[in-house]
Each structure stands twice: as structure tokens, then as C-alpha cells.
Amino acid sequence: MNRSLVRQLAFSDPTFRKNLESIIHPIVQAEMTRIEMECIARNTPLLIYDIPLLVESGKWRGRLHQVLVVDCSQETQIQRVQSRSKMQAEEVIAIIHTQATRAHRLACADIVVCNDGISLLELEKQCQQVSNILSCRN
């Protein structure tokens, strides 16, 4: 698969994106349901999903007890994507503008972890705090 071409089409052509989502989302939803049933059968106390476009989809939130947002500045986000995907800043910004705003993501969050300009030790401390919070809620 030509990931670059699919990314370009998905973020520039709303019809292509809608068609792509109509293929991917039912598969993801079926897998989520399968995993949830398996966890229920095993009496698993905590299940964590990584849902990149949770806010944009509008439908996943109802299936979740808590939403944790890992937050960073737009500048950091651009740098990280450029480093990982070798994209130009303008491409990254264009993609960011098709997604929910940072303010909207933060408004939808029950818990926020800041992952911007901090050490790994500070990030670990935040993650431990989140773990403690979630343990108390179960």
C-alpha cells in the first residue's frame, strides 16, 4: 500500500476519506467488541484503547468510561510527525487542520497527560498518577 498516497487522498478528498472510514471503522468496531467480550470473560479490570480520531468520530466516546488525552503543543506535534514520517511542516499542518482542535480534544478529556517539554521521569510520574486514579475508580 502506498501510505503516502492514501494519506494525501484521505486528508484532501472528503469522499475518499468517508469511503475509507466506511471500510475501516466496522472492522475496528468488530475487533473492539471481540476484545471487550474477551476481557469480560477474563474479568479484566482495565481495558485501554488508543483511538487517534476519537473526538472526530463522535461515536466511540459513548463506549468508554474515561477518555485520557496525551497533549502537546502544535509545534511539538509537527516536529514529531516530521521526524517520524519525513513530511513537510505544511503537510502536517494541513492534516492537523482536518482534525479536532487541541481545545476540543482537551474539553473531551477526563484525564490529561502533558507530553511536551518534560523528561521521561516526569512523564512516568504522570502515568503513575493516572494509574492510581484509574485504580481508585474501579
Brief account:
The chain has helices at about 5-10, 15-40, 55, 75-85, 90-95, 100-110, 120-135; strands at about 70, 110-115.
Features:
mainly alpha; 7 helices; 138 residues; 2 strands; Rossmann fold
What topology does this entry show?
Layout: H1 3-12, H2 14-41, H3 54-57, E1 68-71, H4 74-85, H5 89-96, H6 102-108, E2 111-114, H7 120-137
Parallel strand pairs: 1-2
Helix pairs in contact: 1-2
Task: Describe what you observe in this structure.
- This protein has 138 residues and is mainly alpha-helical.
- The protein has a single domain, classed as Rossmann fold (3-Layer(aba) Sandwich), CATH 3.40.50.
- 63% of the residues lie in helices and 6% in strands.
- It has helices at residues 3-12, 14-41, 54-57, 74-85, 89-96, 102-108, 120-137, and strands spanning 68-71, 111-114.
- A two-stranded parallel sheet has the order 1-2.
- The model has no long low-confidence stretch (mean pLDDT 90).
